[in-house]
Amino acid sequence: MASIFFVGVSKINPTGCLLRLYKTLKNHNVTQVAFLTRTAYQEPRNKPAPFPYWKKKFTYLHELTDPMLDRFDGNTKLVVVDGPPAIGKSKLCEHLANEFGLLYMPAPTQDDLYINSYGFDIRELDSKLPFYTKSFDVPRFLENPDDKRAAYFQKTFFLMRFEQYLNALLHLLSTGQGVILDRSAYSDIVFAQAMANAGYLSELVLQHYMYMRELGLDFLLKPHLIIYLDVPAELVKEKIKQKGRPYEVNSKVFSTQFLTDMENIYKEQILKKLGHHSHLLIYDWSKAGDLTTVVENIEEIDFDNYEDNKLSDWVFNTTGDLLEVRHAVDSKRPQMFMSLYDSKLLSWPRELYWETEEERTLKNVLENCPSEKYEEGFNPDCGDQVLWKIPSFKRFTLRRTPCDFVNRSKYMSN
After folding, report:
1. What pTM did the predictor assign?
2. Gap between the Cα atoms of 167 and 104, Å rounded
């Protein structure tokens, strides 16, 4: 049974210009568009081509000519599917993306972080690196969660989800196409808190994580809709066994207590808080639910209600306010990311930083790696035909091959 909170308002003027993202005068001539609609049932409408944010920045000069609002419609929404591991979230994301014409951004993985665009996996360089700068991915964490690198590992995951969420906002505001995510920066705390409860993160590390998280979430607009798939801990363990990955099946991490902690944190901290802002659908997913039912439930949601601060993040008094958000997520993403990366309370716990000599060694190793020495597309050592070389300035925590936009051509009609 779904638990529903009504949120949002959609307004389109006679020319098709979406005004739902900001307040309008009561006497404005509008047509209500209060529902997400499957693409099969949408009325044909000529939209401007998406702004090519993947090629150029949105500048203040573009404000004068870019028809941003004309791209928006009732499906211009940010949707998150959440829940415990191994229960089929990605399958539901893909189905809803196809049904509603949303861009599906797969969950970040550490392959995005470690494998560069030339196909080289920098985890192969670990033998040359100091302990704290060696790679530490999900299999290694599940095999040894007491490793001191688990703290930096969890920090990196939040940063990857934060970066992806900014990319989701950029895509939505630049194209008018809604986005669906498999988990988000908001729910990453579920893993951090459960890790702390199990003793894998110290209390001081968790304090730093919470500080970084609060700073990061202040930059973001909360989702329009959260779909939570509820599965009890013991059944999650069975599903993990069915997947058959040895490092998951044999890990002490996925204990009944750890998975129960995750479930409680989801319900008591994440859903309860976000439910005041976002629309929320909760399903018992003990047996894979009927995808058609989920689609129908979404179509029945009336988004034409802003009572009690519902969707307040998406209410803008003027188009200028909305444009400022778009400028921020377009041009200030690197600064936002690095401000979080460098954020600290008083002094960092040893697990969260690299000493000067460690950073120097890492830098030297990467500079002597042919596929890491220069920026992507400007690396003659990897076959790029260029007139000049551009040294690489990437920080180690930035994803080398983010998967956020792998489905852009599939789910975009323009």
Report:
1. 0.90
2. 12
